[in-house]
Amino acid sequence: MIGEVTGIRKIRMLYLQLLYRCNFECLHCFHGERLKHADAFNPEAAVNLLTLMRDQYGTEAVTLLGGEPFVYKDLTRVVRYAKQELGLQVEICTNGYRIERRLTEIAPYLDFLRVSLEGVGATNDHIRRFGSYQGALSALSLARELGVRTGATMTVTSRNIDEVLPLARTLQEFGARQLKLHCLRPVGNAALHPELLITDPTAYGRLREQLQEADLAIEVIVDEDLSEGGAPEICAPAGSPREIERIEVDPRGALTMSCKAVGKDSHAFWYDKLADHIIHRPSASDELTLAVPDVVYARV
User: Fold this and answer.
1) Distance (Å, rounded) from C-alpha 153 to C-alpha 221?
2) Structural domain span for residue 74
3) Could you give the CA distance from residue 242 to residue 26 in angstroms, rounded to a whole number?
4) For an engineered disulfide with 294, which of 45, 116, 143, 235 has Cβ 3.0 to 4.6 Å away?
5) What is the pLDDT of residues 19-74, one digit of tens each?
């Protein structure tokens, strides 16, 4: 259905939000009130969607998210199926809090573990949860011992922009390969915390200069909205690319092609879990009608 409507024939990666439930209530979480919702993929629907995406769109990789994916009781089953049966590259994005036992279980089927961190020490814990910083570092250490490659993601806010470089250096010490920096978008919980927004766009320029001068060994990937002029309005789903990098599905089955549309209920496509197929539900406010541009990433 996606191909018929958009011309897209290949989608390299599926971002699969397994459930809304989370053991954190981060100040900037784009899910907001949905963290209280019970929507989730049962394991059958999850593996069915993975199979559909591989067979129909040549999907090569999956990133499992939530909520918090490690509180999903069937995580091992989904990870094992994705790797052993479908041959996908498997990544998990997690808060890293008390995941050691389950991480050890799934490590043989896991290609990459990405932890979410919002700064160093107390800065991170204030935004996320007390003890979450040390929990994430513990997860990184264990993953390294288990032979799983690691990285981190950070949403840049007014409270942590000065800690990007210190966090990158700390991650290097723990053997992480990559730090991915996201621009804060005022949806979900972030809409309730405008103080987190950066009002001086020149701060982004200074951040990028610091990263370029630091000569880091870790790879830093930056959302191009983290620049004074913002990212160019390109990569709109309404265009006619034959291949896109990723598509994201939420626990209800709503599919989103642009990161800038995530959390905004502007879905043009839905995965029908019972029928195991994708359907098109156009509207005046969907991401195709509005030509929402995708996020552009670049290496520093």
Assistant:
1) 9
2) 2-299
3) 36
4) 235
5) 999 999 999 999 989 999 999 999 999 999 999 999 999 999 999 999 999 999 99
DSSP collapsed to 3 states, the chain:
CHHHHHCCCEEEEEEEECECCCCCCCCCCCCHHHHHCCCECCHHHHHHHHHHHHHHHCCCEEEEECCCHHHCCCHHHHHHHHHHHCCCEEEEEECCCCCHHHHHHHHHHCCEEEEECCCCCHHHHHHCCCCHHHHHHHHHHHHHHCCCEEEEEEEECCCCHHHHHHHHHHHHHCCCCEEEEEECCCCHHHHHCHHHCCCCCHHHHHHHHHHHHCCCCCEEEEECCCCCCCCCCCCCCCCCCCEEEEEEECCCCEEECCHHHCCCCCCCEEEECCCCEEEECCCCCCCCCCCCCCCCEEEC
The CATH number that applies at residue 231 is 3.20.20.70
The tokens for 230 are 């913002």
Token pair 């990098």 in the structure block, residue: 245
- Residue 231 is predicted with a pLDDT of 67
pLDDT in tens, 192-209: 999 999 999 899 999 999
Q: To the nearest whole percent, how much of the chain has pLDDT over 90?
A: 79
How crowded is residue 228: how many other Cβ atoms within 10 Å of its Cβ? 12
Q: Name 259's Cβ contacts closer than 8 Å, sequence gap at least 6.
A: 248, 294, 295
Number of domains in the chain: 1
pLDDT for 296: 82
- What region, left, alpha or beta, does residue 161 occupy, with left being phi > 0 and alpha being psi -120 to 50 degrees? alpha
Please report how many Cα atoms fall inside a 13 Å half-sphere around the Cα of residue 84, on the Cβ side.
10
83: pLDDT strictly greater than 50: yes
CB atoms < 10 A from the CB of 214, how many? 15
**Inter-residue contact 237 to 263 (CB < 8 Å):** no
